[in-house]
Amino acid sequence: MTRCEATTERRRSSLLALVGVLGELLITGGLVLTLFVVYALWWTNLTADNRSGRAGERLHQVWAAPPGPAAPRPFQGEGAVGFLHVPAMGKNYQVLIRMGTGSEILNEGAAGVYETPYHSAMPWDPSGNFALAAHRDGHGAKFHDLDAVEKGDAVVVETRDSWYVYRVDSVLARTSKNDTGVIAPIPEGSGYQGPGRYITLTTCTPVYTSRYRMAVWGSLVRVDPVDAARTPPPELTADH
Q1: Which of residues 229 and 19 earns the better pLDDT score?
Q2: Of the N and C termini of the chain, which has fewer Cβ atoms inside 10 Å?
């Protein structure tokens, strides 16, 4: 082998070694990325569901306890308000509602009540907008299927003493994540022209991104009292 051939062979060997190292790095990077996706979309869902499930059980225990001398408080432990039921997102769909929309609330698998930039009205208030947010993906992904909700669908809020039954009036498929008007007392873009008893559900869109927001708006149809058996309203027992 000539000197030139030897030099060429060394270069070829070095190149092959470099390609091998790069290949190993790409494989390692792919594995790391896969593990991150598994963590973000599976593990966080699992842990959030477990935490919200336990918090929901505690809330039911509080509700089942004999009432004290004072009138029942609207908020129970952990800032819990009640439960959200949306049959269009699953026959047995239920999510715990808590006050606030910070990560300490939403990452626990709850739907959070907006307290800023507008302080949401509560379902029992005479007028206003009960505005909620939840994750589209990861951390329970409670609003993953919010895009399945359509005009005319039922949305039910369960509290200790009442079932608040809403009907969906309009849906905004996409808006800026800075569009705070969608949760205003009279939500902008909803079609509502004056004060009322409204509910707004918001989440990120498109799926697996947080670039935009979508909103679902509904208005209160009626309030049913909770009986001893906590019999749900017909909207939650009908076949869908």
Answers
A1: 229
A2: N
pTM for this structure? 0.81
* 204 in active site: yes
149: nearest Cα among 176, 130, 167: 167
Tell me whether residue 128 is in a domain: yes
Residue 222 belongs to domain with CATH number: 2.40.260.10
Return all residues near 38 (Cβ < 8 A) that are at least 6 apart: none
Say if CB 217 and CB 150 are below 8 A apart: no
171, 204, 216, 220: which one is catalytic? 204
Q: How far apart are CA 93 and CA 27, in angstroms?
A: 39
pLDDT digits (tens, 9 = 90+) for 11-29: 565 555 555 555 555 554 4
Torsion-angle region of 141 (φ positive above 0: left; ψ -120 to 50: alpha; else: beta)? left
Q: Is residue 37 part of a domain?
A: no
Domains held by the chain: number: 1
